[in-house]
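Quick one, tokens below:
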């Protein structure tokens, strides 16, 4: 319910923030000069909004210079982040960033991402919602899934809330699983590293789990950052409180090892692949091991509307409920998603 209310508030407030400046300029190598608004640069594509031609997707390598009086975040291929206004560089194919410390120049090939530093809280929020469904006639199993990804990024951190609710129906029974994760990555003085704090709530009928509440902290690193892909890993420790469907409760501490890989393409149609894996070796329960995996594929059908494919799996070799149906649960669904 809290997630739904937040979505409604953000949609309502976004209407009041619709008016945007259109005073940025880009110059192409062929001499064309276009005035509009720099929306973002990611995946080798510059998204540029104009009054006359709508939103243009321009190949980053075709842009000779950009000029704006507004503040942007520049993320480099070595993980460094800089904030300031962007100006034409000393040579074509370079960008100059002006901040309180002076002027810095970067080559086009160094810049992985450009994103505006929005002034209002609402404009800094990115939201993606998806509703998926799958049915297997031979087994009579139907799965319905709802997912939400909400993120907020500022100059110091990236904050994210993700949720997934899956309902499985058969001819004889109905089971469900859910997961809500909240995380905060805080950038450090070392370019590619970040501090991480997180918490979560999980339920799973198939694994006999009434609830699992977790809270943890650790360190992470961007091992790969390029215009087309990124690889992120982290090491953490978290505390758990779990209760089985039968009513048994236990507390424990476990390590957390995560690895995430994303790859995207901003040619038409836009395509994004995201793979995540987490391993949880217990530090207080001898021999216990848990694991989670997930894969999502988003393919843009029309502007901001995506075909969405999702697969996930959960493993626990020592479930809280000894009468649980098994050690492993999984789901595969497909449907539509909306980004705003």
């Amino acid at each position: 319910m809290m997630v739904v209310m937040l979505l409604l508030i953000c949609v309502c407030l976004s209407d009041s923030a619709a008016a945007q400046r259109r005073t940025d300029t880009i110059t192409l190598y062929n001499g064309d000069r276009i005035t509009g608004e720099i929306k973002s640069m990611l995946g080798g594509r510059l998204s540029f909004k104009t009054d006359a031609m709508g939103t243009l997707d321009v190949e980053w390598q075709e842009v000779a210079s950009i000029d704006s009086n507004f503040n942007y975040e520049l993320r480099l291929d070595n993980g460094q982040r800089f904030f300031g206004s962007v100006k034409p560089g000393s040579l074509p194919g370079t960008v100059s960033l002006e901040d309180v410390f002076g002027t810095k120049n970067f080559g086009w090939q160094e810049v992985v991402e450009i994103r505006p530093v929005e002034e209002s809280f609402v404009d800094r929020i990115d939201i993606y919602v998806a509703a998926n469904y799958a049915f297997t006639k031979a087994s009579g199993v139907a799965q319905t899934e709802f997912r939400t990804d909400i993120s907020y990024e500022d100059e110091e951190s990236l904050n994210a809330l993700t949720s997934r609710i899956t309902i499985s129906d058969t001819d004889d029974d109905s089971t469900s699983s859910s997961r809500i994760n909240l995380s905060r990555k805080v950038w450090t003085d070392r370019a590619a590293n970040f501090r991480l704090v997180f918490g979560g709530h999980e339920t799973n009928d198939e694994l006999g789990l009434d609830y699992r509440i977790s809270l943890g902290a650790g360190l992470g690193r961007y091992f790969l950052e390029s215009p087309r892909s990124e690889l992120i890993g982290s090491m953490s420790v978290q505390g758990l409180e779990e209760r089985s469907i039968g009513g048994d409760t236990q507390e424990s501490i476990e390590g957390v090892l995560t690895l995430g890989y994303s790859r995207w393409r901003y040619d038409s149609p836009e395509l994004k692949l995201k793979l995540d894996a987490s391993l949880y070796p217990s530090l207080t329960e001898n021999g216990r091991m848990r694991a989670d995996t997930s894969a999502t594929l988003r393919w843009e059908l029309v502007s901001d509307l995506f075909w969405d494919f999702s697969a996930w799996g959960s493993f626990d070799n020592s479930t809280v409920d000894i009468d649980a149906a098994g050690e492993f649960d999984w789901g595969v669904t497909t449907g539509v998603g909306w980004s705003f």
